[in-house]
Amino acid sequence: MTKHQVKTKTKTSTAVGVALLAVAGLAAAAAIAMAALPPKLTVRLVNTVTSATYTKGATADMIGIALTASSGPAVVSSLTFHVLADDDASFATVENDLTASDFISSCSLYDSNNVLTSGPEPINSSGALTFNALVIGIGRGRTQTYKVSCNLANVTTASSDDDIYALTINSDSDVSVSRANGTAMTGRNLDIGNISDSGINLNGSSVAITVNNNGTLTASLDGTSPSPDIILGNSTGVLAGVWGFASTNEPFEIDKMTITNSGHDEVANAVRLTCTNVSGITVTNTGYFSNGSVLFANLDCYIPNNSYSTISVSIDTNQVSSSGATSGDTIQLSFADTNFEAVGLSSGVSIEAGDLATPVINASEMILRKTKPTIALANGSPSGSGVPGLNEVLRFGIAADSRGYVTVDELTFKLTSVANAAGSTWNVCDTDGSLGSANGLDDADFSLYEIDDLSSAIEGSDSDWMLLDGADLTVECTKDTDVVDFAILDLTTPQEVAAGSYNVYSLYLDTTGASAVNDDSIRVDLPSNSEVATNYGTDPDGTIIWEDDSGTTEIDGTYVENLPVYGGTITY
Q1: pLDDT single digits (tens) 396-413
Q2: What does the longest C-alpha to C-alpha distance in the chain come to?
């Protein structure tokens, strides 16, 4: 067999200066071609800086650029930016009718880690900003990003409209860059923008900053401000109001703030205002009410730029006693912009009394008591399948605060029942006995016990109970067609819950006549106080009537915690 010698030929393209091996394959040829291309620097706008509004005197991020080196390393030694400046808050038509150096004090160049690379430098009279003596080395195939931040002069804007500024790199001559061997890169080796955009941020079309004379501050009641509640005497740090402040276009420091009280000053032994200062440290200032107000001065409550911060006010309460405060006294705090001052930290402009959109913002009312009850569903409260007859239908507990005992005078229960069988009367009023012992409900069918003593009901007699059909909670139902919707227990002998104790009670109800075949059911609740108060025509009113160990009698159920308490549904 004859052997043929294969020779490898080399084909050279002088047009691009790349040697391609005819038999080396496409991948090798491509690699060789890339290795032979001269280094190139591309300059582009990046979104690390976006259009924004600032206040005079602020430091504004004005432009972000990306420097990308390809086919070899590059060293940037100078960058020149041109400032566009209009006094009409718009670049729809670029007028350049401001002298930028009159309104911008200096600018600095920072790397992606916010480390100063060059500057501060001034803007010259022609509106040019140049960073010289740079040594920005960019490795082959690498990208480095930078931003320019400028210190805005604290001078009034040029017209009633906001001023607007933008930085641009217009042409190759604005960037001085060389190869690693010192040869300058120009022409095709330096790409500033593209055909349709012959510069970076040309005419400010992509990133521009707007400058106004001062920022704005708005106030509101914060969502964490407490709801209306019972507060107890001899307590410290009782939160009474939280207000939020939102800044726009510059940070603020609140120096003075007035808190007013539309209730009784003697409730509060001291008033404490808490906020965060510019260092992020929580600071507290203490004051005292005089004629319904307290002025906090020399504050340093900090509201960051375009952000939201809260200021909270708490009180230390006086003891409920003959020499202190009185049970039933109220306190309701309000923020009022009277004697108010906040300073814009960029503009230096003060926001004072009358400058806020909402001059008075009320927190919730609080009622002072010596002690208070807390009601809750107790473990073991029945639900699920039941047997008609005299059985437990609700188990609940009442706790008294450790400051004093609670006396329970009256309780209101809500019944939700279903009688599915036609003509069924087991859940209607039978106060006159006309329905018979196996049908209807009357006072004798209800009994309330302490769980530890089921041998003796706590009501003095059946007459302690009043049954109502829900249409009106002032008149006992008497018609045997009225379904029993509420049962009020007005105790002849009130129940006392000792200070710091928790008493558990069990409600029994005779449901004889309920049909197991038809899945009759009942649920007993301690309803919301507002539901009872809305329909109850006497005073006091509410789910519970109680006393607080201070000589104050018949306190209504306003702000008693955990109401409503829902019992379980019992199905027969």
Answers
A1: 999 999 999 999 999 999
A2: 130
The full set of domain ranges for the chain reads 9-37, 40-212, 217-369, 373-571
Environment class of 272 (CB within 10 Å of its CB; exposed 0-12, middle 13-18, buried 19+): buried
Helix, coil or strand: residue 67 = strand
Quickly list DSSP for 100-162. Answer: GGGTEEEEEEEETT--EEEEEE---TTSEEEE-S--EEE-TT-EEEEEEEEEE-SS--SSSSP
* Sign (positive or negative) of CA dihedral 498, 502, 506, 507: positive
At 115, list the tokens: 């480390």
pLDDT at 29: 44
| Span 413-465, pLDDT tens digits | 999 999 988 778 899 988 777 777 678 899 999 999 999 999 999 999 999 99
Establish whether domains 40-212 and 217-369 are of one fold.
yes
* Residue 17 backbone dihedrals phi, psi, to 5 degrees: 70, 35
Q: What is the pLDDT of residues 135-184, one digit of tens each?
A: 999 999 999 999 999 999 999 988 778 899 999 998 889 999 999 888 99
CA distance 315 to 263: 13
Tell me, what amino acid is at 118? S
Please tell me the distance from the alpha carbon of residue 99 to that of residue 120, in angstroms, as a whole number: 19
The arrangement of secondary structure in 40-212, i.e. its CATH architecture, is: Sandwich (2.60)
pLDDT band at 271 (very low <50, low <70, confident <90, very high): very high
Rounded Cα distance, 516 and 519, in Å = 5
pLDDT > 90 fraction of the chain, expressed in percent and rounded: 70
- The answer as to CATH 3.40.50 being correct for domain 217-369 is no
Asked if residue 138 lies in contact with residue 75, where contact means CB atoms within 8 angstroms, the answer is yes
